[in-house]
Automatic annotation (TrEMBL):
Residues 80-245 form the DUF218 domain. PANTHER family: ENVELOPE BIOGENESIS FACTOR ELYC, INNER MEMBRANE PROTEIN, PROBABLE PERMEASE. The keyword Membrane applies. This is YdcF family protein. Keywords: Membrane, Transmembrane, Transmembrane helix. It holds the Pfam family DUF218. InterPro entries: Cell_Envelope_Assoc, DUF218, Rossmann-like_a/b/a_fold. The keyword Transmembrane applies. The chain crosses the membrane at residues 12-32, 44-65. It comes from the Bacteria. CDD domains: YdcF-like. Gene3D superfamilies: HUPs.
């Protein structure tokens, strides 16, 4: 139920979608006796889209999330394992093209290649299933990508049932059975790291944050104006999604802190 509700609310309450809905509803009302409401709603929607697309709003929302967990020192002790969260490969397109198709979060999958070269004795685990019922699990595309890259020689563990961050943590812990004292790196996008760390801690799988896929400098004192509306709108949506996820996961007891910290 939580998964379905999160997808429904996530779609209708995404900031960019809300702005578009306001414009469309407002435009429709212009042809009715509620034209005054139509002008107000369409104006509000247009202003919201302008604010999200051409101001540093996305940076202001994303920077605190990305700065929350710094990268570990490069000279850190070798980890026992590396766990990588899904969200970087398109399983359906990969199957259709017969080749791994990666998303803009590809660093989630390329960074472990370098990490495994540096720490060859570490166990590598990927967790990511099907985004929608009946679709292919992301693990299929990732398996092929890492095999093509020479990382997977048959010793990588793939968890292919999880649909969200909560299930990533729960199912990965079931498969890995981490032992007390083991050091595991958790690789995911910096924007997603606070929620991921909170969920993994709650699930009894403590890990060391290894954030990748940065979209800001992580410095609120250095406001970044977007170079174009497309990227800016995407960043606002992604940041609001994470803030909303932090609130929802805390209210439902899936994390122990509203804004998990190192």
């Amino acid at each position: 139920m939580f998964f379905i509700a999160s997808k429904i609310f996530g779609f209708f309450l995404a900031p960019v979608h809300v702005g578009i809905f306001l414009c469309v509803i407002g435009a429709a009302l212009l042809y009715t006796r509620w034209r005054a409401w139509g002008r107000a709603l369409s104006t509000l929607g247009a202003l919201a889209l302008l604010l999200m697309g051409f101001t540093p709003l996305g940076h202001m929302l994303a920077a605190p999330l990305e700065a929350r967990f710094p990268e570990p020192p490069r000279d850190m002790p070798a980890p026992d394992g590396i766990i990588v969260l899904g969200g970087a490969a398109d399983a359906e397109l990969s199957a259709d093209k017969n080749w791994p198709v990666l998303s803009e979060a590809a660093e989630r999958l390329t960074t472990p290649i370098a990490l495994m070269r540096k720490y060859p004795d570490a166990r590598l685990v990927f967790t990511g299933g099907a985004a929608t019922p009946g679709s292919r699990p992301e693990a299929e595309a990732v398996r092929r990508f890492w095999r093509e890259a020479g990382v997977d020689k048959g010793d990588v563990l793939y968890e292919d049932r999880s649909r969200n961050t909560l299930e990533n943590a729960v199912f990965a812990r079931e498969r890995v059975q981490p032992k007390p004292g083991e050091r595991w790196l958790l690789v995911t996008s910096a924007l997603h790291m606070p929620r991921a760390m909170g969920v993994f801690r709650k699930a009894g799988f403590p890990a060391i944050a290894f954030p990748v896929d940065y979209r800001t400098h992580g410095d609120l004192g250095r406001l970044e104006f977007p170079g174009g509306a497309t990227g800016a709108l995407s960043l606002v949506d992604a940041a609001v999604h994470e803030w909303a996820g932090l609130v929802a996961y805390r209210l439902t007891g899936k994390t122990d802190a509203l804004f998990p910290a190192p």
